[in-house]
Write a structure and sequence with these properties.
Helix 3 runs antiparallel to helix 4 (133-139) and helix 5 packs antiparallel against helix 7 (249-261). The strands form 3 sheets. A 5-stranded antiparallel β-sheet has the order 3-2-7-1-8. Strands 4-5-6 form a 3-stranded antiparallel β-sheet, covered by helices on one side. The longest helix has 77 residues, at 52-128. It has 7 helices and 10 strands. The radius of gyration is 50 Å and the shape is elongated. The chain has helices at residues 22-29, 34-45, 52-128, 133-139, 181-193, 238-247, 249-261; strands at residues 145-155, 198-201, 204-205, 212-215, 218-221, 224-226, 230-235, 264-275, 283-289, 301-308. The protein has 309 residues and is an alpha+beta fold.
Length: 309
């Protein structure tokens, strides 16, 4: 026979009145979307605050404001200090102009005194030279000379540099295509040996006591600096002097400088060249001295190095 169904211990709850409104109930229970809820949770985990893009924009704006503030302060300071700087600059320019004028006056005074001393030396030389006073003054460079001769121009190479380490540098030169003092010494000695009667370099008259030296890269003639190109004028028979110099050892040396180091040279015979007088003269002589009475040797000795001017 059939058995009756078992009796449940808990009764089935009655259905909700709003069971037919499940969508509206879900919206009311979950007012925030799941995506928004996840973004809010992530922001809370990161410490909250503004988004990264907003923070970056705010940082950039703060940097621009700070830069503008610095520029503004700098401009204001420069505007304040501009009159002081301008005044100091004007004072410095005035001092430079004054010192330059003083140096020019001193240089002109030195040149005038040098000319005066040279003129007195030449007059004394002519006066005490007797009948051969003019010849002595001519040979010593005390008077201006002119006549036929040659013109020799020596210049640095077109691509002369400041260092090289070549064979000329090892012997006191520089393998750079620059003309050195020893080069000009050989040129001048070669001209004297070839028969030149008078020689000048860039308007500086050379005598038997002239010195050609170097001070750094500059060439000095009697302590006066020369600037390339170096124009050498020599009085003599132009064609013979030119040929004799080019055939000499010193002429070949100059040709080797041109071929190996690019030093530029040119030589030409001139119908007339004019050389100035030397700015100062120092003539050294030797005179016999009487025998020393104390020794009684009766032999005369010579006193050298006595200078007259």
């Amino acid at each position: 026979m059939p058995q009756p169904p078992p009796v449940r211990s808990t009764p089935t709850p009655p259905p909700r009145p709003d069971a037919s409104m499940s969508l509206l109930t879900n919206v009311m229970d979950h007012s925030l979307d799941d995506g928004y809820a996840e973004a809010a949770a992530r922001r809370d985990a990161e410490g909250g605050g503004l988004p990264r893009t907003v923070r970056a924009k705010l940082g950039l704006a703060a940097g621009l404001v700070l830069a503008a503030l610095v520029v503004t302060l700098g401009a204001a300071q420069a505007r304040i200090s501009a009159p002081v700087v301008a005044k100091e600059r004007e004072e410095l320019i005035d001092r430079i102009d004054a010192e330059t004028e003083a140096a020019d006056r001193l240089e002109a005074e030195v040149d005038g005194l040098r000319d005066e001393v040279g003129e007195r030396q030449r007059k004394a030389l002519q006066q005490h030279g007797g009948d051969q006073g003019e010849l002595v003054a001519l040979l010593s460079g005390g008077t201006e000379v002119h006549g036929p001769g040659i013109k020799l121009v020596v210049d640095d190479a077109s691509d002369a540099g400041s260092g090289g380490g070549g064979p000329r540098e090892s012997s006191g030169f520089s393998d750079t295509g620059r003309v050195r003092d020893r080069d000009m010494q050989r040129v001048v000695n070669g001209l004297w040996q070839s028969g030149a009667e008078a020689v000048s370099i860039n308007g500086q008259r050379l005598t038997a006591l002239s010195a050609i030296r170097a001070a750094g890269d500059a060439i000095l003639v009697d302590n006066r600096p020369l600037v390339p190109p170096y124009t050498v004028l020599a009085v003599g028979d132009g064609k013979k002097l030119s040929t004799a110099f080019q055939d000499s050892a010193d002429g070949q040396y100059l040709h080797a400088l041109q071929e190996n180091f690019g030093i530029r040279t040119s030589i030409s015979a001139q119908d007339e060249v004019r050389l100035p007088a030397a700015p100062s003269l120092i003539v050294r002589t030797a005179e016999p001295r009487a025998a020393d009475a104390a020794t009684g040797s009766g032999q005369a000795t010579e006193e050298t190095g006595k200078g007259t001017s």
